[in-house]
């Protein structure tokens, strides 16, 4: 070490890159945090001092490169087979980078005594807070912000270019609403992307859909200031003619009159209701895939089982293009709820107790009664008659 193989002497003239852009490139290539997702926080590129580095690997693994520098030294390392045959899965990080890192530390020690020169920030570098996802000045809807450095003549785009934009959308065309298209509108957070390839990626590619959902765009609406709905765009025909919004409903059933039609992209209409004047949930009453081009009776609605109070009735129509239009009315529902006929609770009839049949007891055999023996009548012994001579004789 110590022999100069070649020294470049730049010709006199203008600097080919501005100090601000050179500093920005060096800042990017020396940012260990930026390369952590790909290489890890403690890769061989993370030297004990700040150094810019870039790795590279050709598709067939014939070439590995790591090039890096500080203000003191620039080093490039190539790794490959001498006969230019492909290597076995060796990348710039595993092949050339360890050699580069070892040489850089040795060179810095030799050239500076271990005290490398830092990259000097030019006066034309400024700090700006940006939306961390879009890179523009953050709109009020940007979910996360960060601080970055910029050249003073190359500042971030204004917040009007942020990905998050609030827009009044014509719900039937999906375009920006205008004075000509303002009867079916909704204020929505729109994705400020106009590039057709980016839109296709977000709509059709699973990775694009995942990216949109992770950033809060579950069903992305694409915002483009140049695309505004006009009278030439298809328009829906949708209304509830009867009852009127605010009506107090005391009779049952309710006859609902209205119309639901579209020029060429009608798909279906639905009648729905929800509790209160701004429902969170809707319950379907009726739906039909046949358009209604003139006001007529859409449905006869039995409301006898619905709790009294303010409800919102919605007529919702969908197009074949996944767009929609809706109209709402509020009704004060005061239809008496029929008192249910009490259901008689059946009285349990006691099960009669079965008297058990008497158990037959066998009659015992009769013991024969002994036959009486007739004793012979005893023979009377005659008593001798004694006549007292003193006793008078009986009168005849």
Task: Explain what the structure shows.
The chain is of the alpha+beta class and 396 residues long. Among the domains are: 19-112, no CATH class; 125-157, no CATH class; 164-214, no CATH class; 236-333, Immunoglobulin-like (Sandwich), CATH 2.60.40. 14% of the residues lie in helices and 28% in strands. It has a five-stranded mixed sheet, with no helix packed on it. The protein has a three-stranded antiparallel sheet with strand order 1-2-3. Strands 8-10-13 form a three-stranded antiparallel sheet, with no helix packed on it. A hairpin with a 4-residue loop joins strand 14 and strand 15.
H/E series, N to C? Answer: HHEEEHEEEEHHEEEEEEEE
CATH superfamily of the domain at 236-333: Immunoglobulins
The end-to-end distance, rounded to whole angstroms, is 204 Å
Mean pLDDT: 85
Q: Which class best fits the helix and strand makeup?
A: alpha+beta
Q: What is the annotated CATH architecture of the domain at 236-333? A: Sandwich
């Amino acid at each position: 070490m110590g022999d100069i193989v070649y020294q470049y002497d730049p010709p006199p003239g203008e600097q080919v890159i501005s100090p601000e852009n050179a500093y920005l490139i060096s800042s990017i290539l020396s940012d260990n945090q930026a390369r952590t997702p790909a290489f890890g926080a403690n890769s061989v590129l993370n030297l004990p001092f700040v150094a810019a580095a870039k790795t590279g690997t050709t598709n067939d693994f014939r070439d590995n490169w790591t090039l890096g520098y500080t203000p003191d030294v620039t080093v490039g390392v190539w790794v490959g087979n001498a006969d230019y045959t492909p290597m076995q899965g060796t990348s710039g990080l595993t092949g050339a980078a360890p050699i580069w890192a070892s040489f850089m530390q040795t060179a810095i020690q030799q050239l500076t005594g271990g005290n490398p020169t830092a990259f000097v920030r030019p006066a034309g570098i400024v700090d700006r807070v940006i939306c961390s996802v879009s890179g523009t000045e953050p709109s009020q809807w940007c979910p996360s912000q960060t601080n970055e450095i910029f050249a003073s003549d190359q500042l971030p785009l204004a917040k009007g270019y942020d990905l998050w934009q609030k827009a009044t959308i014509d719900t039937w065309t999906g375009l920006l609403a205008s004075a000509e298209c303002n009867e079916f509108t909704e204020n929505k957070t729109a994705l400020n992307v106009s590039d057709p390839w980016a839109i296709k990626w977000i709509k059709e590619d699973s990775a694009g859909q995942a990216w949109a959902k992770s950033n809060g765009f579950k069903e992305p609406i694409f915002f483009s200031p140049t695309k505004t709905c006009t009278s030439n765009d298809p328009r829906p025909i949708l209304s509830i003619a009867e009852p009127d919004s605010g009506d107090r409903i005391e009779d049952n059933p309710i006859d609902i009159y209205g119309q639901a039609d579209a020029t060429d992209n009608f798909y279906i209409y639905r009648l729905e209701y929800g509790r209160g004047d701004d429902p969170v949930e809707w319950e379907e009453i009726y739906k039909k895939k046949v358009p209604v081009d003139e006001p007529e009776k859409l449905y006869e609605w039995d409301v006898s089982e619905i709790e009294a109070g303010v409800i919102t009735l919605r007529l919702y129509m969908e197009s074949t293009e996944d767009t929609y239009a809706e109209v709402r009315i509020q009704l004060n529902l005061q239809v008496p709820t029929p008192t249910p006929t009490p259901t008689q609770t059946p009285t349990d009839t006691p099960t009669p107790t079965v008297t058990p049949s008497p158990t037959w007891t066998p009659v015992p055999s009769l013991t024969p009664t002994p036959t009486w023996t007739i004793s012979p009548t005893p023979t009377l012994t005659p008593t001798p008659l004694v006549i007292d001579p003193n006793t008078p004789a009986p009168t005849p």
